[in-house]
Amino acid sequence: MRKILKAKDNFEKAGYTYEELMQMQTCSVKNMYHILQGYFNKVRWRKLVCNNASRPRWVFMLTLMDHSRLYTKDRLLKWGIHNDQLCPLCSYANESIQHLFFEFQYAVALWKRLLNWQGIHRSIHGWSKELRWAENWAKNRSAKAELFKMVLAGYVYFVWQERNARLFQAKSRNCETLSKLIIQEVHSRNNIKIEKILNRLDYYPMLIVVWLLVGL
């Protein structure tokens, strides 16, 4: 009886009258769900993070960046936390998502290297334009689009990791080292959908990466 009454309440919440229910020949659970749940506009960045085959922590970091939720110094300042606003990567300009990922020469060189590795040759723009371009590119369901999403997530993760290493540990790596680490990680994911395209791209053996890290 409780289930019957609960179903009656759900139909009433969905806007159905008793007369309409009596005349109803079929019922779509999907339509009922959408009516009760409500319709929401799909966010553009969903193509970048949903079904992204890269490491979960990469996707999480990319999601934070898409939402502008990374704890950059300019954001901390808005919260009333006063500190040195200089970017730890360049010690010249103030730190922000815009500067950290797509303005500073270090990040631009790294992103350019990763794009070229995928066979994408284009100019690098600011954060907003670059994100819009990435969202449009990720709409494609091809293997190239899947690879691009993984590389973008790895790029965001490692740039943020490098930022923290320089800020809290006084350690640094050059963009060539980071690009090889990202490429190595992408190869290690063993994703079937991008396997063929990865076989045509350069591969950096783990020994080379370890040697570079030890050397630095």
From TrEMBL:
Name the UniProt record assigns to this protein: Uncharacterized protein LOC142175823
